[in-house]
Amino acid sequence: MEIRQNFSLQPLNTFGLEATADNFTAIFSENELRTALRSGLRPVFILGGGSNILLTGNLRGLVIQNKIGGIEIIPKSKNKVWVEVGGGVVWHEFVLWAVENGFGGVENLSLIPGSVGAAPVQNIGAYGVELKDVFVKLSAIDLKTGKKQGFSKAECQFGYRNSFFKNAGKGRFCITSVTFELTTAGHKINTNYGDLQKTLAENGISNPQISDISRAVIQIRSSKLPDPAKIGNCGSFFKNPEISREEYDNLLEINEKAPHFPLPDGRVKVPAGWLIEQCGWKGKRVGNAGCYEKQALVLVNLGGATGEDVKKLAADIIQSVFEKFGVSLEAEVNIL
Asked: Are 301 and 231 in contact (CB under 8 A)?
């Protein structure tokens, strides 16, 4: 393990924004993490895949990139296995591994950028599935004490793109491994989302298997979202707002075609991309930042943008949507 000074983070964040870490190291084991913590450099920031952060300046203290690998299969029953995955494993690579091995449960989460260790923080989700649906437990290192701690599903306090690690536990832990419960047979195939059903139909698939779901999701995401290697972005920048039925009725008075998804608690989820598009932002460029032409939820670095440029664009979009619809958008990304 080597600690490097004045380290450029531009290649380690998918927005491709220039920022520097005063001190930087990559760790490949829990022992290396503890060694880094004993350096005394503070504050400590844990970096995963860099796909859910907006860097608005240089990072002080010590930036630690989690590169802890490994996948271990733990047989549990005839039709289920537990799989413990290192926090530094690339999320999509884990999903592809699961599909190739015939393990179901994460196929709808294909092509989501980032690392396994960062996935519980965000409670990532797509196409009717969230991480919490297959989550069993995780292990983490307390950044203050260096001690290992386990977290159950209840202790993670999962919510919509939310968890304990984005609230009371923010910045306190490095997630070193996550254990999932996956199916080996009798897979629950989730095709509830219209885009997924449409794509499967176009591909002539009427009885989809987990591999079909994964390929369809990859196809959809590739058609809607820009490749960070070509256009800097971090995927969906905003959460889909969850509003009361009364608020949705007010929204219908403004636009009777407002789409929505009913929630179990009686509230309504409204697509943030639709709200943003209705305000004229889709495809709009402001300096070197912009709103992606194929998906209004995605903010992009069109070349030479700064974190402050993107942050200002996001703030203007939030204000615009609130003024037109009375709905408050919330950033999904971690703004630093």
From this structure: yes
How high is the mean pLDDT of the chain? 96
pTM of the model: 0.93
* Phi, psi for residue 139 in degrees, rounded to 5: -115, 140
Distance CA 305, CA 71 (A): 37
**CB contact set of 11 (below 8 Å; sequence gap of 6+):** none
| Span 273-296, pLDDT tens digits | 999 999 999 999 999 999 999 999
Query: Nearest CA to 42 among 172, 139, 162, 137?
Result: 172
In the block, which residue shows the tokens 């995927």? Answer: 235
Alpha helical stretches, state H, 38-148:
91-100, 119-122
Q: Name 31's Cβ contacts closer than 8 Å, sequence gap at least 6.
A: none
CA-to-CA distance for 239 and 11, rounded, in angstroms? 25
E-assigned strand segments in 187-236: 232-236
Residue 118 backbone dihedrals phi, psi, to 5 degrees: -85, -20
Say which residue the tokens 């590739």 belong to: 222
Shortest CA distance to 211 belongs to which of 95, 64, 62? 95
232 touches 51 (CB < 8 A): no
What are the catalytic residues?
161, 236, 332
Strand partners, 179: 84, 137
Residues 288-305: what's their mean pLDDT? 96
Q: Amino acid identity, residue 203?
A: N
